Amino acid sequence: MWISVIVIGVGTFLTRLSFIGFFGEREMPGWMELPLRYVAPAVLGAIVLPAIVMPNGAVELLPTINPRFLAGVIAALVAYKWRNVSLVVAVGMGSLWLLDWLL
Amino acid sequence: MRDADIRRSAFADGLRAMAPLLLAIVPFGLVLGVTAAGSVVGSGLGIASSQIIFAGAAQLVTVQLFDDHAAAVIVVVTALVVNIRHLMYSAALAPAFRDFPRRSRLLLPYLLTDQAFALSILQFEKNDDPAYRRWFFFGAGMGLWVPWQLATIAGIVVGAQIPESVGLEFAIPLVFLVLLIPVIRTRPGLAAALAGGLLAVVANGVPFHLGLVIGAVVGVGTGVALEKAGEP
After folding, report:
1. What residue numbers bound the domain in which A15 lies?
2. CB pairs under 8 A between A and B
3. A52 and A28 in one domain?
4. Do B95 and A28 touch (CB under 8 A)?
5. I need a labelling partner for B96 at 20 to 30 A (CA). Which of A69, A100, B135, B176 fits?
6. Residues A32, A37, B195: CA angle, nearest 5 degrees
């Protein structure tokens, strides 16, 4: 098991180093610039949406069954206006607990 | 500003940016510690995996698979596929890292996580000074690394006392939601986020947590296609 964990650790480090290491001294090809601009929105969208609309593995938007969707929408509105991580986490968690308690 | 001042304030900015994310990270680390301690992996390797692998989802999957008596090859391949998303982060950050000294370029990627990526890519747009960027990344990275080690150890030694019904894991998407909004600046950007999210939902059942990677790839493709089609 130790050997497996070490192999995973080395492999993980290599994926993290990959492009940073390879293009450290070489020019990055010009065509890569355009797709790289969309990595952040695409990845973050892919992290956020499933966690909000399907926390239990099936898409469910009704607040009585999945309060996280409504809590997420409220948090998104707050995030759009203020962009403060602590505030949004507080509002989102607060909304979730309130909905859980109300419904 | 003097060099040392820039470094200190950049490092502090990185730590500060990471701080609110700990609300979601610490409970995850506790759960990982408890799970590892109660599995065939055990306490020693459980703690060591937080330094050797330093990637929560992959560490958890490693512990679970070993506990299910999966073959070592399966465990290694699964954990590495779970971590394949780091390729995208590395590519997106590579242009900024080009301006770093060689040693930083080779060592700092060890600290590259979902959280460090999202915070850095946003901060790098606001500040293009290589020294600032380097120390901000280092600050954000250590701001996650140290609490992650402590949380894993605490989970192993003390055990987790957080009831699941509190739903603290919901803090994770909330944090990424805040980081998502400012990176959507154009219509193609919005389309990339929506397409990435929808595909990740559709591909949710795909093994190895690959739904995230599939969503991200389709999201990037959508953004690129729309920009090429001339959307503002």
Report:
1. 1-37
2. 271
3. no
4. yes
5. B176
6. 110
